[in-house]
Amino acid sequence: MPELPEVEALAGFLRERAVGRTVTQVGVGDIAALKTFRPPPDALVGGTVVDASRHGKWLDLLVATPTGEPLHLVWHLSRAGWVRWSDQLATTPVRPGRSPLALRVRLDDGSGFDLTEQGTRKRLAVHVVADPQEVPQIATLGVEPLSSDLDRDGFGELLAARNQQVKGLLRDQGTIAGIGNAYSDEILHAARTSPFALTRSLTEEQADRLYAALQDVLEQAVAAAAGKPAAQLKDAKRGGMRVHGRTGQPCPGWDGVPCGDTVHEVSFADSSLQYCPTCQTGGKPLADRRLSKLLR
What positions does the domain FPG-type occupy (predicted)? Predict the structure, then answer.
């Protein structure tokens, strides 16, 4: 699933290529992906793209329509969705069916993009709205982690608000917007913190380290993703991971010195997390079962 750094890069990619262009066609390939019906998607046709931005893990294409009413095409790529840009889109009409194509947006120079989703579990969500706050999942987003709204004191308040596993706090979109499974693993490894540590159990030093890791990991990932074409972002994300998705590989440790341990995994029903016991859990492996607790 694309997270804050990749979604920010996709917004920049679309700004560079789409702003100032006129929308000439919007085709729906998967009606289930479309979550709003008024206004319809073709209300965007004839409008000029004004901006592309991000709300958490949601992308937002702002279009000034011919009627003068600005509309937002907003979408969440979920786990298996993606933006596929083409300088010359196929001219064949979009027809609903079993294709991965969910939505196509064509611009006046023949370029544009497809929203696609692989697999059988379809979760990609597309909305056409006058205000992004009309989308409940956007209206309830928490603080942007790299904004000035989340300083160290504010982060401490989030940790103290309720006693929960720190991995869950980082991934809770209603608390902190934009962080998913992969970057929460990376942040916790950088902070040398167990994913199952309880938020109220952290010392001031541990909270300081976690806040610094959150900032550093995301800032570095945003910088690494910036300017990359959409087609390269998935591979760039995977290549930048130190522990996530690297089960069984040597832990990279710190300051270029491996710690000597290997990356471990905890599997759940539909996801998994990765961590290093030596760096994060005092050398104790976590039980690999649902509702895992630290082995004692």
Answer: 242-281
Within 8 A by CB and 6+ apart from 262, the residues are 248, 249, 250, 251, 276
Report pLDDT digits (tens) over 193-238.
999 999 999 999 999 999 999 999 999 999 999 999 999 999 999 9
Of 77, 291, 56, nearest to 174 by C-alpha is 56
pTM of the model: 0.94
- Determine whether domain 4-139 maps to CATH 3.40.50.300: no
List, for residues 149-186, the tens digit of each pLDDT value: 999 999 999 999 999 999 999 999 999 999 999 999 99
Domain residues of the chain, as ranges?
4-139, 152-280
Is domain 152-280 classified as CATH 1.10.8.50? yes
* Per-residue pLDDT tens digits for 44-64: 999 999 999 999 999 999 999
Residue 165, Cβ density class (10 Å: 0-12 exposed, 13-18 middle, ≥19 buried): middle
Distance CA 265, CA 244 (A): 9
49, 62 contact by CB (below 8 A): yes
Which of 55, 52, 45 has its CA nearest to residue 14?
52
In sequence order, the 6+-apart residues with CB closer than 8 A to the CB of 295 are 284, 285, 286, 287
The CA angle 74-76-82, to the nearest 5 degrees, is: 110
Residue 173 tokens read as 């979109």
Which strand (E) or helix (H) includes residue 85? strand 81-86
